Amino acid sequence: MKPIIAIAGRVGPASRVSRSAVHFAGDVYTNAVLRAGGEPAIVVPQQLTDEDADELMSRFDGLVLMGGGDVDPKLYGQEPSVHVYGILTEQDIFESTMVKAAIRMGKPVLAICRGLQITNVALGGTLVQEIATLANSDSQVLHKPENFPEGAPFAVHDVRIADGSRLARALGTTSIRGASFHHQIVDKVAPGCVAVAWAEDGLLEGIEHTDHWLVGVQWHPEDTAETDAMQQNLYNAFVDHARKSLDRH
Q: What is the pLDDT of residue 138?
């Protein structure tokens, strides 16, 4: 049997075809999971108690959190600045509840871009609301395309990964070029997690949990994974760990 991978879904607008709002996950995520040998399943955003989330995650073998809009700063004790966009507090709470359930249930988690950020916030960390406000703004590499959040699909920059980290073992390398589409980063790393990846300018690009297979990256490996084997390696490693969860049942 293939491990079933929960992807925390999103709500999209109605179209002439759907006639009503839709629940969706990006095909770059689902295709990366399929190539890794998993079976992706979209979980509809919903209000969940911890007990609900545990019961829901018990049906799956792993969890993917996708990229997207900004996390509500009020969830990490700050007021929203003029730089934030796309806040959906209900989505934040849904994903926070899901990731904490996955950890309790012993299911691996792969958190991408916003997914890394909501994971860090859910576990007690904080974010920088706009990297352009940091002291090194003049020396930063390009972390987002022109006209962000519109414009080109992504920027590209080098990422250095801590030797011996779970992330380095998954990718099979300690240096990689990542597809980048973000204007925020992790500030305070959540308790129980450690920083494991950095851009050339020193900005944090990856965290992982010290006791659980939970890896979060700020770049988008799925955007280039079809042609870049090292990026696909991260999804392969994640699904391999999900398969171990399946084998325990």
A: 74
